[in-house]
Amino acid sequence: MKMQKHLGLLLLLISSSNGAMATVLPDACGSNSQKFSVTIQKNEHSPQNPASGQAQLVLAENVESDYRCFASGCGVTVRVGIDGSWVGADKGNSWFVVNLLPGEHHLCVNWQSRLAFRERQVDVAKLDAHAGQRYYFEVAVIMKVRDNGHQIDRVRLRPLDLDHAQYLLKISGRSKSTPNR
C-alpha cells in the first residue's frame, strides 16, 4: 500500500512537471497563447473563387480515429498558421479557406489542447503560391492505438489532389473560427 502511494505521488509529479514545459512552435506558427473557438457551417461544401490577384489555400481537417467519438470527443481543434501568424482553426471534419498573396509561404498546424502532449503536436509545410491558383491541404488528425496498447496522437499537414480534396469538402462543413480573448 505504501509503495502504491509513493508510485502515485511520483506519477502525479511527473505529469504536472510535463504540463509545465513550454510548447515550442515553429516560426511558421503564431503565439502559443492564442486560442480559437470554432463553429461548423454544415451546408457549405465548396469555396468561392480566390480574390483577384491572390492565391487560395483550402485546408480540410480529417480525423482518423480508433476511438469512439462521444459528443465533441473527436472534435479536435487545430490552429493554422501562415508566415508566423495564426489565420484560423478547424475542428473535427471541417475545412476553411485563406486567400494569400502570391509567393513563398510557410504553413503550420498545431493541435489546440489543454493537454501538453497533444499541444506539442505540430507539422509544417512550404507553399509556393501563384495568383489565381487554389491549393488544397489535408490537416490529418491521427488518434490511434497500437497493438501494445500505447496511444498515438498526431497532426499532419499534407497536400491533396483535387479529387480527394473535393471529397473531403463534400463530407465536411465549413469551419468559422474566432480568436478567444
Can you walk me through this structure?
The protein is α+β, with helices and mostly antiparallel strands and 181 residues long. The protein has one domain (24-179). 18% of the residues lie in helices and 46% in strands. It is built from three helices and ten strands, in the order H-E-E-E-E-E-E-H-E-E-E-H-E. It has helices at 2-20, 116-119, 162-170, and strands spanning 36-41, 55-65, 77-82, 85-91, 94-100, 103-112, 122-129, 134-145, 151-159, 173-179. The protein has a six-stranded mixed sheet with strand order 1-10-5-2-8-9, covered by helices on one side. Strands 4-3-6-7 form a four-stranded antiparallel sheet, with no helix packed on it. The longest helix has 19 residues, at 2-20. The chain is globular. Residues 5-20 have low confidence and may be disordered.
Residues in helix, %: 10-25%
Based on Cα principal axes, name the global outline: globular
Order of helices and strands: HEEEEEEHEEEHE
**How many DSSP-defined strands?**
10
Number of domain modules: 1
* Total of helices: 3
Gyration radius, to the nearest Å? Answer: 18 Å
Which helices and strands occur, and which strands form pairs?
Layout (H helix, E strand, L loop, with lengths): L1 H19 L15 E6 L13 E11 L11 E6 L2 E7 L2 E7 L2 E10 L3 H4 L2 E8 L4 E12 L5 E9 L2 H9 L2 E7 L2
Parallel strand pairs: 2-8, 5-10
Antiparallel strand pairs: 1-10, 2-5, 3-4, 3-6, 6-7, 8-9
